[in-house]
Amino acid sequence: MQNYSALSLFRRALGGHAGWQRQWRSPEPKAEYDVVIVGAGGHGLACAYYLAKQHGITNVAVVERGWLGGGNTGRNTTIIRSNYLFDESAALYEHALKLWEGLSQDLNYNVMYSPRGVLMLAHNIHDVQSFRRHVHANRLNGIDNEWLTTEECKEFCPALNIGSGMRYPILGGALQRRGGTARHDAVAWGYARGADARGVDIIENCEVTGIRRGPGGAVEGVETSRGFIRTKKVGVSAAGHTSVVMDRAGVRLPLESYPLQALVSEPVKPAFPCVVMSNTIHAYISQSDKGEMVIGAGTDAYTSYSQRGALHITTHTLDAICELVPMFRRLRMLRNWGGIVDVTPDRSPIIAKTPVPGLYVNCGWGTGGFKATPGAGHVFAWTIARDEPHPINAPFTIERFRDGVLIDEAAAAAVAH
Ligand code: FAD
Ligand code: PYC
User: Fold this and answer.
1) Which residue from 197, 198, 259, 324 puts its CA 20 to 30 A from 47's CA?
2) What's the number of domains the chain is made of?
3) Is residue 94 part of a domain?
4) Which GO terms describe its cellular component (predicted)?
């Protein structure tokens, strides 16, 4: 694998940047693999990377119906944090956050992780009580989170309006200083490059159209738009289309798929130093390195696979943002887009074996799985390699919905309802 360093950059610059290797190959699918991962989003690619790197399983294909990173991985607002309420979730998201902290070095690829702080604003007494509870729960788990008064919020993020007479007064906020953002494409590309270099085949434009099972019920392979691929292990990381893919193996999951939208403004000089989340009014804001304000909205109220959302959802978000940050009224919006998110009843993911031998699923990340990418990929790889869950993902089973052992994180982002 070619190494990226200041020196290699300098050398290539002298040569007019000719001679860089392609970051990953574009192989034809082989007849058989030890493991096939469905979906080349960040989660699928991270899983393949850790399968190869940590478990020595390199005869792996990642099959993607579109282009690598073209699903929710390339569509999200890139917010990273681990301030979830319950112990199980805190362990999972903190595992991911710790991996983010060393990811650029591990991949030798700059994923631009920027721990600039995530501030969650409280606009009513319920928010105050809920976020304070999160602060205490997080600190008991050794996770940084602190309560800021209204004035401290303003000091941390000077663009905020804390004046009187607002429809959404800022009563304080919960700040996770280690939270922040990363460059989503770079995350997909970095994992793809690392997996490819270890022998993993990444096969784009290859849709999984069926999951073949043998007489005993176990997985035998996947039918794809580029032919049948034999394998005894299939890991599904297909986000908003997980229920469609799993249905092809005869497995029903408690998932609903919704459109979720984001938009960016024209680029401006640095004006917004942190990430602000306002769960109550569904507004999620940060400034990208290019200078655009990156803005996330809420989900549509109806289920859909259309990958575009309703206009009134974004106008509601912009309405609220103009009140929260009045100077943004002068910004023009450049682009908006949607993704399809897979939401579980308790708003926590499923990372587990399934009732079908050889079939594994990593899904239900809904509106919040980008932050989990390294951690989810890591424990999903473990689950597939060892045919048993890692202790961190052991609680995130499908059976919890049958047994009532829910991990109710509905308040964690509030995007998903
Ligand atoms: P994806 O990147 O969607 O990858 C799944 C892949 O599977 C896709 O590329 C798809 O083409 C492929 N696929 C599907 N069906 C098939 C098939 N039959 N055959 C082959 N391939 C198939 N999370 C956060 O933590 N922070 C945020 O700020 C945040 N903001 C968001 C904002 C928006 C607008 C959206 C849409 C999501 C947001 N999320 C956020 C959620 C986050 O993006 C997702 O949870 C995460 O990216 C899921 O990653 P993934 O790799 O599982 O999915
Ligand atoms: O989970 O932090 C999050 C998030 C913010 C916007 C969408 N999801």
Assistant:
1) 259
2) 1
3) no
4) cytoplasm
